[in-house]
Specification:
The chain has ten helices and no strands. By secondary structure, it is mainly alpha-helical. The chain is globular. Belongs to the mitochondrial carrier (TC 2.A.29) family.
Length: 291
């Protein structure tokens, strides 16, 4: 993140995100299931049914894909965000100083797009492993783990299948990165600059910044997230336009916000992925700088 006093190893972001995703996976799983199913079932009904039918441990189905996704997608977006900031400063702030909100958005958007491109193959396996629980047996992929999913996808559908839904996924990653990383940096800087609040650059400020950034990110990325998940969960030739047409017909415009509640809970509240990720990242970075 911005404001580092020492270079941060590129893999810290991926480690932080992977650790957080392991804790928040059950909620993430329900988000994908709500996004791809056509029923009106809510989050509590879906998660209760999953636990009752397959056991509590089934709530971590797809966790291997979630971890690898973060090690590819988040490692790339965090690392490139740092690289973009350093490069951008030489252009717009050659004499030093902090980047403005607009510059942070540019850096975060480019980093997010690259992260989405790198993470797309694993994202497909993750969506499919999570969505299997609400699909009829004949439509399930039945991947044993993330490596099995990647190998079978190539074998059964060809290499091009690994980039199904790439457009919506890259757009979702761009929007998510801008509204998460850039928003986090901007919010944290604003909170620290507001003397009346008396906040310091500590865990409390990181928590508050994470909650606000997570709420913004959830809302902004939701439509792209729904389109991406529906395309990637299908082995057929489903396209964006047919998904939008069918979704509007069945549920109206709000279908683009399906899964918002578990996505928001995952990012900000009950199992706070964004909060955990940023707090873990800040603590790892702080310890590294002490060394």
């Amino acid at each position: 993140m911005s404001g580092s006093t020492a270079a941060t190893p590129f893999y810290f972001g991926g480690i932080s995100a992977a650790a957080a995703s392991l804790c928040t996976h059950p909620i993430d799983q329900q988000k994908y299931r709500l996004q791809v199913q056509t029923s009106k079932a809510g989050m509590l009904q879906t998660i209760t049914r999953s636990a009752h039918t397959s056991g509590i441990i089934s709530l971590w189905d797809g966790a291997s894909a979630s971890i690898l996704r973060q090690m590819t997608y988040s490692t790339t977006r965090f690392a490139m965000y740092e690289v973009m900031q350093a490069s951008w400063k030489t252009v717009v702030q050659p004499e030093g100083g902090k980047l403005g909100a607009g510059s942070l958005c540019v850096c975060a958007g480019v980093a997010g797009g690259l992260g989405g491109l790198v993470g797309n193959p694993v994202e497909i396996v993750l969506v499919r492993m999570c969505a299997d629980g609400v699909k009829p047996p004949r439509e399930r992929f039945g991947y044993v783990n993330v490596l099995d999913g990647l190998l079978r996808s190539v074998k059964e559908e060809g290499v091009r299948s690994l980039y199904r839904g790439l457009g919506p996924n890259v757009m979702r990653s761009v929007v998510m990165n801008i509204s998460q990383l850039a928003a986090y940096d901007t919010i944290k800087s604003s909170l620290l600059a507001t003397s009346q609040l008396g906040l310091k650059d500590d865990v409390k400020t990181h928590l508050l910044s994470g909650v606000l950034a997570g709420t913004i990110a959830t809302t902004a990325a939701a439509p792209f997230d729904v389109l991406k998940s529906r395309i990637q969960s299908s082995a057929g030739k489903t396209d964006v336009f047919s998904i939008i047409r069918n979704g509007l017909k069945a549920d109206g415009p709000l279908f683009l916000m399906k899964g918002w509640t578990p996505a928001w809970m995952r990012l900000t509240y009950v199992w706070p992925n964004t909060i955990l990720m940023f707090v873990i990242f800040e603590q790892i970075k702080a310890q590294y700088q002490k060394w």
